[in-house]
Amino acid sequence: MDFDADLIRALQENGRASIHSLGERLGRPRAAVSDRLRTMLADGTVRVVAAVDPGFLGQHVLAHVSIRTDATVEPLAQRLRGLAETVLVSAIGGAHDLVTEVRVGSMAALHDLLAEIRAMPGVVDINTLIYSSVIKGFFVSEYRGDVTIDATDTALIELLQRDGRMSFRALGEAVRLSPSAVTTRVERLIESGVIKISAVEARGLAHRQLSMGVGLNLLADDDSVLDALRTWRGVDFAARTLGRFDAVMTLVEPSAGALYASLERIRSLPGVAHVEAWFHLAVLKEDYARTLRPAV
Question: How many helices (H) and strands (E) does the chain have?
Fold first, then answer.
């Protein structure tokens, strides 16, 4: 068993899981879990943060944009990182040079954003996949609708976006409420799908985990393929898409060999017609925090 990988996976499913429950799940002493988690948080191996569901924010259009450039990647990546609409920017190896995930309120807004990206210096062309549905995503919480929040909820969300494991006592001190009152509010925000608290793992050549994007063309509208991907341990994200692929996903594994084995497993699934993959060389932005306060 890979202790770090299993601990991170458990935190991705529930970022506020107690040390006791994590120890029980992993079959490890609580002291070992606590020490390892403290170390990984301190050295940046993992961050545990809250993210507001896109639906609650009115971000009803999510898209994956692949970009080719005729220049060095970093200046363009810096421009993409600066856009409020991007939650992910990654330098990749493959037919394109960069990919970004964007979240906007409407198709018209997406059209305007894509025009802005095309006009950036160095952009040769872009290719866009629109998510028709998210199959698996640690920061998409399926907002239920009809939930209102007040200034205290907003303050709690902003604190949890910085540190998703901040104690209820510390949260209460920050917003001047009792720990029990804060617990009730945070649980309501999670249960209603307003926020999801999960773990973000550092990925890329300089880190312990490698990441690969995969596009799938299916022989038919095959839900069985997507149902299988939803349960796979190495699949961090999967979405049904409109565009050159029927689905797109992210694989995360500790080695190139493990990524290859996962790709072979995907290719062997009945219903998969074609697989195209790209390697994430460096994840340059992965930031799901969003302000809920009106602009002044």
Answer: 10, 10
Q: What is the rounded CA–CA span in Å between residue 230 and residue 239?
A: 10
3-state secondary structure of 50: strand
Q: Using the predicted structure, report yes or no on whether residue 138 has a pLDDT greater than 90.
A: no
CB-CB contact of 63 with 128 (8 Å): yes
Partnered with residue 276 across adjacent β-strands are 215
**Phi, then psi, of 193 in degrees rounded to 5:** 80, 10
Residue 294 has pLDDT above 70, yes or no: no
Q: What's the CA gap between 290 and 139, in Å, rounded?
A: 12
pLDDT at 187: 94
Structure tokens at 197: 């608290």
List of E strands, 20-121:
46-52, 61-69, 86-93, 98-104
Residue 81 φ then ψ, to 5°: -60, -30
C-beta separation of 113 from 102 below 8 A: yes
3-class DSSP state of 293? coil
Cα–Cα distance between 240 and 235 in angstroms, integer?
A: 14
Cβ(57)–Cβ(294) below 8 Å: no
Burial of 44 (0-12, 13-18, 19+ CB in 10 A): exposed
- CB-based contact 209:45 (threshold 8 Å): no
Residue 160 DSSP SS3: helix
Q: Could you tell me which of 44, 112, 37 has the C-alpha nearest to residue 283?
A: 44
Sequence length of the chain is 296
Q: Which two tokens stand for residue 111?
A: 């059209």
Which tens digits make up the pLDDT trace of 187-237? 999 999 899 898 888 765 545 678 899 999 999 767 889 888 888 888 989
d(CA 57, CA 66): 24
Q: Give 197-228 as a DSSP string.
A: EEEEE--BTTSS-EEEEEEEEESS--HHHHHH
